[in-house]
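<instruction>
Derive C-alpha cells from the sequence
<data>
Labelled lines for chain and fold
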Amino acid sequence: MELRDIFVSTMAGAAVVLMGAFYALFYALGKLNGNHLALAASFACYLGLVAATLLLIDALDLRGFWLLMTTAMLIGYLLAPMAIWRLSVDIHEDSDIQHPETVPPCAD
C-alpha cells in the first residue's frame, strides 16, 4: 500500500463519518421544520458519503465480500435516518407525555 493510498483512505473514512452525520442531521432538521432546503442538503451530503465511499473502495482496493459490506453500509446509511424519524414520530404520537405548556403549575 502506498503512502498516497493511506492518506486518501484516512480522509475518505473521515468523510464517510462526517457526511453520514450531516446527512442525518439535515434530514432530521428538514423533517422537523418542513424545510425542503435542509432535506435537499441532506441528500447532497448522502451523495458526498457515496463519493467518499467510492474513494475508500479505490484506495483500499476492496473486492468481493468487502464490496458487499460497503454496499450494505450505504443502504443502511440511506434508510436509517428515515426509519428513525418514522419511529420517533410514531412513538410521540402515541405517548401520554405532557408538554411543558400543558402541565398545570405546582402548588407551593
Q: What stands out?
A: Residues 3-33 form the longest helix (31 residues). The chain has a mean pLDDT of 88.
